[in-house]
Amino acid sequence: MAFLITTDFETQIKLDVLAKVTDSDSSLLFEMELAAIEEMKSYLYRYDIDKIFNQKGKSRNRLLVMYCVDIMLYHLHSRINPRQIPELRYVRYESAKKWLEGLSKGIIVTTLPKKEDDNDGDGVSDTYAQVKISTFPKRSNNY
User: Fold this and answer.
1) CB-count exposure of residue 113 (10 Å: 0-12, 13-18, 19+)
2) What is the mean predicted confidence (pLDDT) over 79-97?
3) Per-residue confidence (pLDDT) for residue 121, from 0 to 100
4) Rounded to an integer, what distance in angstroms lies between the CA atom of residue 3 and that of residue 55?
5) Phi and psi torsions of 106, nearest 5°
6) What is the domain partition of the chain in residue ranges?
7) What number is the average pLDDT over the span 8-33?
8) What one-character DSSP code corresponds to residue 112?
9) Are residues 103 and 46 in contact, defined by beta-carbon separation less than 8 angstroms?
10) Under DSSP, is residue 90 helix (H, G, I), strand (E, B) or coil?
11) What is the pLDDT of residues 37-74, one digit of tens each?
């Protein structure tokens, strides 16, 4: 595995159950980890993804590790039978997505390293400039 280690799973699933879910195939576990990381990266565009996912051991963000495991376990269970995913896995997966959405919108504050801005001094990032379009409230004119 690249980012996760075996002991990261012990708090959320027994290792013998994990072996059953993966059919003791470590390559499947590796592929699911890469898929979970890619899913997380799609939300973490504001952050320095290389710094985040290249960290090892205790320097990793524990909450990020937990949610990465949650996403992996959800997808592993959906691989077995997509219509009978354990409710716990579904709830934890939805919680992970909600946390990642909060990070992407800037609602949740975290210690993850931010990406260096590539702006030209105007305070607006060229890569992720946001535009808000709105209109005035509708008027009703009576004569």
Assistant:
1) middle
2) 91
3) 47
4) 7
5) 80, 15
6) 6-105
7) 89
8) S
9) yes
10) helix
11) 999 999 998 899 999 999 988 899 999 999 999 999 99
